[in-house]
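Researcher: Quick test of sequence recovery. Tokens follow.
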């Protein structure tokens, strides 16, 4: 088995035993990147020279394991564009907190993964680097906004990749590409520095090819940054949890989270079949979900406020360089009334209370991670599903952003393939601050499903009908 095809934990063990060096791993990644990335465009910026000069502590969590960083986070001395023409030539002097945390945990940064401008949009393209293509079928999208990270994992140019998630930006690419992505609970990992430190809709998180590797990466990420107001205490042991599969006792399944969204029939069938596999593992599976009503209205409002706060200077100084989606999000905030904001926060509070109460009965909530299978790479968004037309470019993300509103941890686990061979992800949602049991439950289902997910060589495939 080549190094590229080994798991992150297998490679970490080779490092610990002295069988390979970080330089060996970087050589393997650089060769693989040269072989496949011109087709996929997952990692448009590389920094192999910086990586070879970096010295990681051997006894750290990752011990010198190479890591790809999403291009929304600054890496000191490396071109960091945020997917925007505004930052096309930006080379920061300091790294963001999450990058510092990963490097302190023994990660070695060697590349930046592609993302839409400022993470706005669930399809990975921008004017700086262009589009990222799905390795399973190059004519299809990787979703967004952590699409470059997901595509790198699946095409074999990363063992671990960093992402971030507001409306599903970790979970959507994981579903479309057939890897695992976790949106942690608020404050579990560092998210700053930010002009919007008190907003927790957006969170940083790990992506990997399997649940055990995900737990390893979360161990390296987790822990407080002294400059962040909502940081949770450090909590090692996520890898151990991910390597200790355990079936839940009582599972809730909901195809649409209480009627929030239409779902493609094939996606519904695949995800429902995966959810019911917990029955064979000894769990009771019932149709139920918390009260997420009002999620569309509240998320649209709070997302707009977040974008306006984070990107006010970009709007005032460089509006002509922003894509329409970013402008729309910012200007929506300017039209809000105080009553709109009060209502959004009231809805969010009620949703979170309902979620917490729901988990007094259930151990796990399951739904589709995305409502459609990978669409054409040229499409900016999903405009309709199962006969329903969407009003905005983010409406199709409700099944993910409803969970975002509660700050509960959620991951996307590969659970099957469509008739034309494209991955489908199952969203697995835990109790508040419940990453540990969530990883155990995900590991149990992953083992039961036994899917062979690669990495794979990029496939041309037929374009969508």
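Model:
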């Amino acid at each position: 088995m080549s190094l590229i095809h080994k798991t992150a934990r297998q490679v970490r063990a080779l490092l610990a035993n002295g069988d390979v060096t970080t330089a060996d791993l970087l050589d393997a990644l650089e060769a693989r990147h040269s072989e496949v990335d011109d087709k996929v465009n997952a990692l448009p910026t590389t920094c192999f020279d910086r990586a070879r000069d970096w010295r990681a502590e051997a006894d750290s969590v990752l011990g010198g394991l190479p890591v790809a960083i999403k291009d929304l986070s600054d890496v000191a001395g490396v071109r960091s564009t945020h997917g925007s023409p505004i930052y096309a030539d930006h080379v920061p002097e300091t790294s963001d907190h999450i990058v510092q945390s990963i490097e302190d945990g023994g990660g070695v940064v060697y590349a930046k993964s592609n993302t839409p401008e400022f993470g706005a949009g669930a399809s990975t393209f921008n004017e700086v680097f262009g589009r990222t293509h799905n390795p399973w079928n190059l004519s299809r999208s990787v979703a967004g906004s952590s699409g470059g990270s997901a595509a790198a994992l699946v095409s074999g140019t990363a063992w671990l990749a960093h992402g971030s998630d507001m409306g599903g930006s970790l979970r959507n690419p994981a579903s479309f590409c057939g890897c695992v992505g976790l949106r942690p609970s608020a404050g579990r990992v560092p998210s700053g520095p930010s002009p919007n430190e008190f907003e927790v809709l957006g969170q940083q998180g790990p992506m990997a090819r399997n649940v055990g590797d995900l737990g390893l990466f979360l161990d390296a990420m987790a822990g407080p940054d002294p400059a962040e107001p909502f940081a949770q205490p450090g909590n090692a042991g996520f890898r151990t949890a991910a390597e200790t599969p355990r079936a839940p006792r009582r599972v809730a399944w909901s195809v649409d989270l209480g009627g929030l969204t239409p779902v493609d029939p094939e996606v519904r069938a695949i995800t429902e079949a995966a959810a019911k596999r917990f029955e064979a593992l000894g769990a009771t599976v019932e149709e139920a979900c918390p009260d997420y009503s009002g999620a569309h209205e509240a998320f649209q409002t709070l997302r707009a406020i977040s974008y306006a706060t984070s990107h006010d200077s970009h709007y005032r100084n460089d509006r002509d360089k922003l894509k329409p989606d970013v402008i729309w999000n910012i200007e929506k905030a300017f039209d809000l009334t105080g009553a709109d904001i009060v209502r959004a926060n009231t809805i969010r509070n009620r949703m979170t209370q309902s979620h917490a109460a729901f988990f007094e009965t259930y151990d796990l909530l399951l739904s589709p991670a995305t409502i459609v299978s990978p669409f054409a790479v040229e499409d900016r968004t999903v405009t309709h599903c199962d006969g329903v037309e969407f009003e905005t470019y983010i409406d199709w993300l409700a099944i993910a952003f409803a969970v975002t509103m509660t700050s509960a941890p959620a991951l996307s686990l590969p659970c099957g393939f469509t008739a034309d061979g494209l991955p489908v992800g199952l969203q697995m949602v835990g109790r508040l601050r419940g990453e540990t049991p969530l990883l155990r439950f995900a590991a149990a289902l992953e083992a039961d499903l036994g899917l062979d997910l690669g990495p794979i060589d990029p496939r041309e495939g037929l374009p969508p009908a």
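Residues 3-449 form a domain with the Amidase signature (AS) enzymes fold (CATH 3.90.1300.10).
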